[in-house]
Amino acid sequence: MRIRDWPAGERPRERLLAHGAVALSDAELLALLLRTGVRGASALDLARTLLAHFGGLSRLLTAQPREVAGVRGVGPARSAELAAVIELARRSLAEEAQVRDTLASPQAVRDYLRLSLSARPYEVFVGLFLDSQNRLLAAEELFRGTLAQTSVYPREVVKAALMRNAAAMIFAHNHPSGVAEPSRADELLTQALKQALALVDIRTLDHFVVAGTHLTSFAERGLL
Question: Is the pTM value of this prediction over 0.70?
Fold first, then answer.
């Protein structure tokens, strides 16, 4: 049965308007984005198929657009729409970090990094440049590597931080292998960056390793 043929009180759109988005399940929210189903399956059926295929909402949102497009009934147009929603969420989180102390809203930083890095098929090293109030000045990809490694140069990081008049930095990189455990090389690099930045009075607040939906903080591990 098509969603439009359901009783009005059971349709996702009408329920959202009456009770707010929080009242809807993941599948119902996703169905609203998909709008229509395919032959033999409603938009809600298709949404449930997507969630089952990727093992949940988090993995769906961090999947490559081409992976999403490959699911029967989705295609490139719907995949692009989902990618646009994810990008809007990422930009919203970045905007929040620009006006708030990032240390006072650590979850926003974590969510931003997950949305930015988890779907990358290659390793990327990014820097969050912060002002004296720990508000975000810029978030930039500093280095890009292969699936196995990225070459990061402390001198270039210091130069970039001084150009942006940063008072502090947060680093993050992804592990395409899917394991969010810091390596010994990650630890040595973090110490080298921290020492180089300290010479010009720039603090290193944290370094995150992102792997899929998992994220590890160096600060929480006592590695800074």
Answer: no
